[in-house]
Amino acid sequence: MGQRYWVIGGEYRDCAFAEIEPGTERISGPFGDELKARMEWQRLTFRDHCGATERFTIAIEPSAIRV
Q1: Is the dihedral of CA 27, 29, 33, 35 positive or negative?
Q2: If you ran DSSP here, which 8-state letter would residue 62 be given?
Q3: Which SS3 state, helix, strand or coil, does residue 11 take?
Q4: What is the pLDDT confidence band of residue 23, given thresholds at 50, 70 and 90?
C-alpha cells in the first residue's frame, strides 16, 4: 500500500493562520496519488471567491510499515 494524500484546511480567525474558525474545517481525501490531491487543493484554493483567511494544504499519510 502506498502513501495516501489528504487536503486539509478551512477559514482561519486572522491572517496569522494560527487558529481555525470552528465549523469551517474541511478534510478531503484520501487520494491515492499526489496529482488528484493537488487538483482538489486547487479547486478549494481558487474557488469563485477570494478568502484572505482561507488556507488549504496537502498532508501525506505515510504507508504502513510491516514488521
Answers
A1: negative
A2: P
A3: strand
A4: very high
Distance CA 23, CA 67 (A): 39
Mean pLDDT of the residues in the chain: 90
Q: Give residue 7's region: left, alpha or beta (phi > 0; psi -120 to 50).
A: beta
3-state secondary structure of 3: coil
Beta pairing partners, 7 = 28, 58
Is the pTM value of this prediction over 0.70?
Answer: yes
Q: Which DSSP string corresponds to 6-64?
A: EEEEEEBSSTT--SBPTT--EEEEEESSHHHHHHHHHHHHTSSS--TTEEEEEEEEPPP
Closest C-alpha to 56, from 30, 32, 20:
20
Please state, as a whole number, how many other Cβ atoms lie within 10 Å of the Cβ of residue 9.
21
